[in-house]
Amino acid sequence: MQRAAPQPGETVLTRLRFEVIPGDENHASPTGASLADRLLRAFPAPTGVTLTVTSLPQHGVERTLRSAVELAGLGFRVVPHLPARGIADRAALEDMVRRMLGAGITEVFTVSGDAAPGSGGGTGAYSTSLELIRDLADIAPELSIGIAGYPEGHPHFSDDHLLQHLRERAPYIDTIVTQLCYSPQAVARYAAMLRRIGVEAELWVGVPGPIGLARLETLSDRLGVGRSKELLGRTGADGAGFDAAGFDGAGFDGAGFDAARFDAARFDAAGFLRAVEAQPELADADARDHLAGAHVYTFNEIEGLPAFVEAVTVNHA
Question: What's the pTM value of the predicted model, to 2 decimals?
Fold first, then answer.
């Protein structure tokens, strides 16, 4: 394991990393600035800022790697996404690893993904992320490897399948990033389950960045967010945001979310993260230590990130 050691005073509220989309022509800034320029404006001191760079099937993994290498050269800590079905063969993977290591990239995030553009629908050498992970561990054992986690389950796979998925990958992985989920109870139960079955990987809690609720609701449907999406837009009776004791994650019958807490129309990420930390499943220090931080799905809403970071961390003691 190559888990990052937490610094004194760090908690899930104070360790953040940010997922960005390379070549985001559909959501370019009004000025036409590049993604790199926008990120440098948001983070003028990039050292210590971690960016994860997605790989969309219509773009291909090459665009991800080019963007990752560029951002690493600017001083960011970069985690490229590698889609198994988008990589032709082991030789192509070895070339990617050389480029990443040469740029100082030490961590990757793996997904099964879709077939590479122009492949005619074929899957190349890798049909699952497990095959890719095993080759990565063999080619570059110094790389940290991450996978996705599903606190609310997966729309296409049973819970038993997901447990087998975790157990097969557990010997190789260092990080798990949760898919979007708006139930702090579900996230805490998932973290406790990982610990119970012996998965030692650190857990990054996925939260949306500074994105409006209307767009977030639309994206949540497209991304397959589970029943917790029913919480979006709800306002707790006491106006206090997430009530760690009032929502049981099963009946969706408690005061869950105050839509007015963040700029009147944005997800209350700070309240959500505090509620995750407050869950009884995470009462002991060992369980909390598995929470590495918050993985912010920015959807390339870059300009709002400085205010978002302040809103998430300013009141944390």
Answer: 0.83
